[in-house]
Amino acid sequence: MTQRENYDSGNDFVLEYGDLRFTFNDSDFKQRAEQAARKVKIIRGPLELDEELEDLQNLIVNGEIGEAESPLGEHLTDKWEEVADYANEEGSLVHWLRRLVFRQAWLDQRVIEGELGVVFDDKAMDFVYVQPDRDDGPL
Asked: CB-side exposure of 29: number of CA atoms within 13 Å?
């Protein structure tokens, strides 16, 4: 069994899962947080305000926003009862945001270690992960 390496882009934020400990710099973490929020559809496009990113980051790191700094933070705080358990029995909004940030870094670490590659898929018009030395298409 291969020992997995931990993803590391800085020391501003830490996510742990099992034996894995991923560390992020501020910029990397905010980008991943924004991508995760788009994936679960709590935002539609790029966030325009630094305060929105700050609120989103606080939600993921602390499990709550506390005192909102932006309209997004205020909305999530006002609608907390509706959005907190929005996912389903498998986890809360915070759970899924954290999981998606972790998954993105886990996949990137697999690319760094050569277990996955990234190619542009003309049909999907997007970048996709592939297994090197295999022709069975995107994962």
From this structure: 23
Indicate the DSSP class of residue 108. Answer: H
Q: How far apart are the C-alpha atoms of 97 and 8, rounded to whole Å?
A: 19
78-128 per-position pLDDT tens digit: 988 877 766 555 678 898 999 999 999 999 999 999 889 998 988 888 888
Q: Are 40 and 139 in contact (CB under 8 A)?
A: no
Cα 86 to Cα 83: distance, rounded to the nearest angstrom: 5
What is the per-residue pLDDT for 16? Answer: 86
How long a stretch of residues is the chain? 139
81: its two tokens? 């009862």
Nearest 5°: phi and psi at 101?
A: -60, -45
Residue whose C-alpha is closest to residue 37's, from 104, 90, 106: 104
> How far does the chain reach from its first CA to its final CA, in angstroms?
22
**Which of helix, strand or coil describes residue 129?**
strand
Single-letter amino acid code for the residue at 137: G
| Residue whose C-alpha is closest to residue 97's, from 47, 46, 63 | 63
> In percent, how much of the chain has pLDDT > 90?
55
